[in-house]
Amino acid sequence: MAAASCYGVAAFSCGSPVTRRAAGLNQFFVPSNYALSPAKRVLKFREDGQIKEPAAVPPTPTPPPKPKVRTGFSDVLAFSGPGPERINGRLAMIGFVAAIGMELASGQDIFAQVQNGGVPLFLGTSVLLSLASLIPMFKGVTAESKSGDLMTSDAELWNGRFAMLGLVALAFTEYVKGGALV
Questions:
Q1: Tell me: the pLDDT tens digits for 70-80?
Q2: Short-list 6, 9, 8, CA closest to 19
């Protein structure tokens, strides 16, 4: 703390270099961050000895505007549109969790669950989630615009893809095994 008390004294009488460094001071007795140092100017000299000022740096161009999101029915539900994979992924995530949960609760495999009254529940859930996914898409809201740090649109797509694969693998395994997985 000896260096902190000698701000008005010359740098040579301010204690050891270790004390000055710990207090954030360099050998010239100024705070050692670069925010206080003046900006450097680069001057060029011409052949006749005159100083030539550097040319001004042109401003960076503004980025082009983002293309408008197309919200037509055929655009949203096109093969490469935002709707099919996102909706199928969301349905697969719900379906996979529901299938595993019902299998653990009742001991029935997927095929038995569908045969025992699962079709109306499946259709109702599919219609409800599809409409809930399509309405924002028709209004022009993208999943990327609603992404956060943890819950991103890419994570949702990958989780949906894995859920689709998991649901198919669960059904195939139960078919080959001839009964419930657990």
A1: 667 677 777 77
A2: 6
